[in-house]
Amino acid sequence: MMPGRKWTVDEKMNIVLEGMMPGANISEVCRRHGVAQSLYYRWREAFLAGGRAGLQSVPST
């Protein structure tokens, strides 16, 4: 994971959607984007609860 990296809402959403694709490997998606799996799952939970707007209140790091 890249320390101090700030992710835009669109970047978070695209990473979450990539991980939700059928057959997606979360470990691989996270590694490719430099995101910790725990952060990915926080983003996914926020996205499922509130869509794109839900990601605005979730920390980027």
Describe the structure in your own words.
- One of its GO terms (biological process) is DNA transposition.
- The mean pLDDT is 91.
- This protein has one domain (9-55).
- It has helices at 9-20, 26-33, 37-55.
- It is built from three helices and no strands.
- It is mainly alpha-helical and 61 residues long.
Mean residue pLDDT: 91
The global form is globular
Strand content range: under 5%
Q: Order of helices and strands, N to C?
A: HHH
Q: Helical element count?
A: 3
Instruction: Give the number of DSSP strands.
Output: 0
Indicate the radius of gyration in whole angstroms: 10 Å
Biggest sheet: strands, sense, closure? none
SS content category: mainly alpha
- Low-confidence runs of at least 5 consecutive residues: none
GO biological process, one term: DNA transposition
GO molecular function, one term: transposase activity
Protein name: Transposase
Pfam family, one: HTH_Tnp_1
List the main descriptive attributes of the protein structure presented here.
mainly alpha; single chain
Summarize the structure.
Helices cover 64% and strands 0% of the residues.
Helix and strand topology:
Blueprint lengths: L8 H12 L5 H8 L3 H19 L6
Helix pairs in contact: 1-2, 1-3
